[in-house]
Design a protein that fits this description.
Layout (H helix, E strand, L loop, with lengths): L7 H26 L3 H5 L6 H11 L5 H17 L7 H51 L1
Helix pairs in contact: 1-4, 1-5, 3-5, 4-5
Protein name: DUF5790 family protein
InterPro entries: DUF5790
Length: 139
């Protein structure tokens, strides 16, 4: 039977290493859930509304926010417990991921707004064309 060590410093070191590993794992999962660069750049559609809807779907971040939240929770716990010897890289990566996720969500909202506006705009333009045709016929 192997002898286990229950020294508090050793246990704390193990726990800190596990926390760091969890933060890194959640960050990797968040990155994996983000849309691919080609997915938001190359869309196939027959018209502008189709392109916007395709882009809106491509900008879906899936579970990235949940993974980022989990990473941040583990990071905050580790920071407050002073468990990390050097966590500047984790902090920087979390901040970068937050900014990227916010940019993607902003773009998704912009595309959604435009996709919602475009049909009404098209209808108004068709009505205007119809009124112009009616005016031409009256002359």
């Amino acid at each position: 039977m192997s002898q286990s060590t229950f020294d508090e410093d050793d246990l704390f070191g193990e726990a800190a290493a596990e926390m760091r590993s969890e933060v890194e794992s959640h960050l990797a999962d968040a990155r994996a859930a983000l849309p691919g660069a080609d997915a938001v750049w190359e869309v196939e559609a027959d018209n502008a509304l189709g392109a916007l809807n395709s882009l809106k779907s491509a900008l879906d971040t899936g579970d990235a926010a949940d993974h980022l939240r989990a990473a941040k929770k583990q990071y905050v716990m580790g920071e407050r417990a002073d468990a990390f010897e050097d966590a500047d890289d984790l902090e920087a990566e979390i901040e970068e991921m937050e900014e990227l996720l916010e940019d993607i969500e902003d773009a998704h909202e912009d595309v959604s707004d435009l996709a919602g506006t475009l049909p009404a705009l098209r209808s108004a333009l068709q009505d205007a064309e119809g009124e112009e045709d009616d005016a031409d016929e009256d002359e």
